[in-house]
Amino acid sequence: MLTEAPPAPAGPERRTATRVLVEHHEVLRGLIRHLRRTPCSRPGRRRALAGELYDELWMHERIEEEIFYPAMRDVTPALAAAWSEHRQLSDQLAALVRADPRTERFDRELDMLHDALESHAHLDEERRMFPEVERFADEDLLVGLGDRLSARLGRLRSSRRVRMVLRLQRTLLRHTAR
């Protein structure tokens, strides 16, 4: 599976919330790269990768919205835009899931999702919000949040109930495309 959590740091290295989120952005980017390299002649594989991307992005949004954003509300004013961008990413992801993986439309939706993700993750979070958070938030707070984010992501990934709900959501999205 492509979405294995990064290995736990050896020794005294501490993973801050921003580092955990950047590492998960890399998981999302890796899934998009893998999906882009998978030819339309392999629609089952493309559908499976799109499903994995759907699940990981859904989980990413949950950990940010449940843990990181509330904890940072007094640290950065950039959170309102980030919430809005999550809605855009969710809409674009739904469009990808609805698209037939054998078609050019699927590739266009994937390109638009990639652009939206890079705008949100790289430009808005990694280059703007995260440096601000690291400048003004207490490091111990950021490490504690990093632990909470990692633990929540692990619980979401291992939850059979969450996986079942996400599979149902994807199925419903595909059927609304008809």
In a few lines, what is going on in this structure?
By secondary structure, the chain is mainly alpha-helical. It has one domain (17-176).
Envelope shape: globular
Tally of helical runs: 6
In what range is the share of β-strand residues? under 5%
What proportion of the residues is helical, as a percent range? over 70%
Mean of residue pLDDT values: 91
CA(first)-CA(last) distance: 30 Å
The low-confidence parts are: 1-11
Task: Give the radius of gyration.
Answer: 17 Å
- The count of strands amounts to 0
- SSE string, helices as H and strands as E: HHHHHH
**Count of the separate structural domains:** 1
The description of the largest β-sheet is: none
- Content-based structural category: mainly alpha
Q: Which terms summarize this structure?
A:
178 residues, mainly alpha, disordered N terminus
Please provide a written account of the structure.
By secondary structure, the protein is mainly α. The chain has one domain (17-176). The chain contains 6 helices and no strands. The protein has helices at residues 17-37, 43-72, 79-98, 104-136, 139-158, 160-176. The longest helix has 33 residues, at 104-136. The chain is globular and about 50 Å long. It starts with 16 loop residues before the first helix and ends with a helix.
